[in-house]
Amino acid sequence: MSGKAAPAWQPPRGLADAELEGRIARLRGDLGEELVILGHHYQSDAVIGQVDLTGDSLKLSQEAARMTRARHIVFCGVRFMAETASILAGSGQSVHLPEPGAGCPMADMAAPDELRTCWRELSERWGDKLLPVTYVNSSAEVKAFCGRRGGAACTSANAKKVLAWALDQGRRVLFLPDRHLGANAALDLGLQPEELCLWRRRPGKLLGAEPRSRVILWDGYCPVHVDFTKGDIKSARSSHPGCVVMVHPECPREVVEAADASGSTEQIIAEAERLPAGSVLVVGTEINLVRRLARQCGDKTVLPLAERRSACPDMARTNLGSLLACLEGLDEGAGLVRVPAGEVEGARQALERMMLLT
Ligand code: SF4
Predict the structure, then answer these.
(1) What number does the ligand 1 atom closest to the CA of 42 have?
(2) Domains in the chain, ordered, with CATH?
């Protein structure tokens, strides 16, 4: 669970960043191509400065799996990302998460036992005309549940495509764990609000279901993106007339509708690069990515939509000390991520269905 576990190895205390960086550089030099360090876009600059590849979770996992000389994959991110890398990794590769307590509250909102209860109830109501689709921000066990039932994973970039594939089969779709990504994808595809209903995971209750319900949304959310408001966008437009506002599709529908565009981290980066010099881009997503874009796109102004509400505490857990401790303990299994064998095949099926579609 997010934030609970303590590392079995200890980050060094009292060392200056320059000393930590020097020791990390020596270890990277010693291991050469046997080591690849991945950094999600939401990681701090200090960590991103030490990684070999930066990207979203799926892109990083796929690229690491292709680097067959890399025996050790160190994933600077949160647990579900490292699990995805482990599921896609080759047999000789081990995946390590420097901070075992770096979880994702949204992923934790879809507990496998709650999912089984939900599935049983939906199946009793609608028979076997159901297909599960899970956002990659979910545990390996949830992915495996979906994969075994013919369902697929999706990312924020391809959620619409995967949802369309599922609906085209004439099935009702259980979309989890992010109710906002699911609603945004469904409404963008042209579904009416009345065709969506909600599974309230506690106490386990279906709300708003009708015969015409086509997408059942799990009631999870990202605590960072759910906090952006229409008022934030109004303030940004008033302070920066003519600005472009882009938000992540984990934001509530009313925020996505008030913005000029919505998109995944990679799509936000592409938009920042595409805009002409002199543009002002206001971005509603995690603060580390927004600040980095602001520095990298120096001929434009890139601003956070709500700076003080944009930080993900789980992403911030990884730092130079925990990265160094993980690297020094690789051979002793520091931060080793183990996905139970019984879950790997089903989870891989869910991921591979998505990759075939996209
Ligand atoms: S930003 Fe949101 S979805 Fe991403 S890791 Fe943090 S809590 Fe989870």
Answers:
(1) 1
(2) 17-102+314-339 (3.40.50.10800), 107-222 (3.40.50.10800), 225-309 (3.40.50.10800)
